[in-house]
Amino acid sequence: MENEQEGPERRKRSAGRRPVLIASVAGCAVLGGVLVLLPWERATEPAPPSPGALAMAAVADGVPAALPGLAELIDEREKAVRARPRDATSWAVLGAAYVERGRRLADPAYYPRAEHALRRSLTVRPQRNTRALAGLAALSNARRDFRAARRWGEAALKLEPRRWTTYPLLIDAYTGLGEHKAVKRTLDRLTELRSGPAVLARAAAVYRDRGRREDAAASLADAAAGARAPAERAAYLERAGQLAWERGDLEVALRHFREAVRLDPDQRAAQAGQGRALAALGRTTEALNAYRVALARQPCPRYALELGELYESLGMPEAARVQYDLLRQRVRAAAAGGADEELVLGRFEADHGDPRAAVRRLRAEWRRQPGTEVADALGWALYRAGKPEEALRFALAATDSERGGGVRDAVSMYHRGVIERELERYGAARRHLAEALRINPYFSPLHARAAREAARELGEPPDEDVPEMAGP
């Protein structure tokens, strides 16, 4: 009975509360709708990745990484391996980051650290450690030890044939060894497995080496447009600038170099590229400043040679000598770090030191890694040492596509033309000197002037009577 009596009363109280509850729910719904519309209540966007995370992704994909990010990544992985000494992955990542930092800074002191970390990774995980094998291939390429790079790269590829990041490492190794068929085969396989900016940039380098400059420029433009990070895009723009420079397009080259430096202020290769282009444009003070800035942060022997030759062309032999001393110092530092800078030292000795010493160095380099660049440098050193007949054989290896060459850049064509002139092959000499100046009239502050003088001395081809046609 009590329940029956309480029922109507409870129903009244419930009925009295229901409109309030409904109104409250409705009010919350309206309020929620209003809050959704207010700008300060938008869903928070995810935080952008840290510099270290960006560097990690770049190192994993084998693309250029920003220096601040590399510093953060190295610090993080050094702490990781101290806490977990048997973490094979962290050792491998640390080694790859050391390689990239050493390459970006032109500081070979990082290479022994990289080798220690990568070999430690292999010791911890000796089986199926593709990451460490690929890291050792990258290290060997950075040191210009292309035979070792080929060995490590092929070992990594055997473990994981579909791991696309191994293929660019092998392309670099095969290029350094002059194995042109292997380069083509490896690039074809890479493009089957993967597309994107990194692959386009690698293809551009191969196209350039084959003399397909327009294809190379188009691929680099696409790579730069598709790059995900500023440092990666800056690296591709620097290569595009170098390609434009090699074609003699000075303003285009300068624009690419400047944009690369704007995107990544640590892009010292682009800073040196600005020096190259500005010198050709006659803006000497700006050129000298650009080279000095580049060398202050990335004391690369090649930049020191270029700046020294610029000083020499300006009649400043003492300033040139300072740069040549820096070059020798950096070559010694590279050797201490296990890196090979014999190519640039041989080029320097051929023109500014002892040509016979250059021949000895470059012959040894040719036995180790007979690539196109070494062929050109050795041919020129032999000419400078008074051996033009043998020099021509190497000049042809560097420039004749049937013999494996095909870059046909201005420097190589100039070398070939001068050697042919010495051998009294005047027609070929005239043709190749003219081609060097047509490709890039500004290819060197010293040698472009010499090329013009040599072409002028050879003059126009002699007029000859056209022989009469014989009868049928």
Q: Could you characterize the architecture of this molecule?
A:
There is one protein chain. This protein is mainly α and 472 residues long. Among the domains are: 195-298, Serine Threonine Protein Phosphatase 5, Tetratricopeptide repeat, CATH 1.25.40; 301-340; 354-460, Serine Threonine Protein Phosphatase 5, Tetratricopeptide repeat (Alpha Horseshoe), CATH 1.25.40. Helices cover 75% and strands 0% of the residues. The protein contains 24 helices and no strands. It has helices spanning 2-37, 51-61, 67-83, 88-105, 110-124, 130-142, 146-159, 166-176, 180-193, 197-209, 213-226, 230-246, 250-263, 268-280, 284-297, 301-313, 317-336, 342-352, 355-368, 372-384, 388-399, 410-422, 426-439, 447-458. The longest helix is centred in the first third of the chain and has 36 residues, at 2-37. It is globular. The N and C termini lie far apart (138 Å). Mean pLDDT is 89; it is low at 1-41 and 465-472.
